[in-house]
Amino acid sequence: MSEGLIDQVQGLLQTVSEDVNRLYSESLANNESFLEALDDVAANVLGLQAVIAALVQKYPVDGDIAKAWLKDNMDPEGQGTEKAEAVVDFVLGNE
Question: pLDDT tens digits, residue range 44-78?
Fold first, then answer.
């Protein structure tokens, strides 16, 4: 292989290496942003659960009505239906 060709291949490999490192750095930044957003969502959900739990102590809620609402408004074949019903039980203290 000629010296010029070897230099060209090395230059291309360096460019690829830099691109891979840049993509890795961007991926880390995107993951960090996603985790921060997920943390915000979790904090909001927990805060809302706390408020609702306090409200249902003062104003009792029929869990069956809440679960019927879930069945009417969620895809029964979709993910999350059982989890949503478990949250109803948890918030109402019916664990």
Answer: 999 999 999 999 999 999 999 999 999 899 887 77
Q: Cα separation of 61 and 52, whole Å?
A: 10
Task: For residues 86 and 19, give the distance between their C-alpha atoms in angstroms, rounded to a whole number.
Answer: 46
Q: Which of 81, 74, 87, 95 is nearest to 45 (CA)?
A: 87
User: Hey, what are 35's tokens?
Assistant: 């985790």
In the Cβ-directed half-sphere of 71, how many Cα atoms lie within 13 Å?
A: 6
What are the residue ranges of helices labelled H in the chain?
3-58, 63-73, 81-92
* Cβ-contact 35, 57 below 8 angstroms: no
Q: Which amino acid is at 60?
A: P
Task: Look at residues 65, 53, 42 and name the one whose alpha carbon lies nearest to residue 95.
Answer: 53
Rounded Cα distance between 56 and 75, Å, is 26
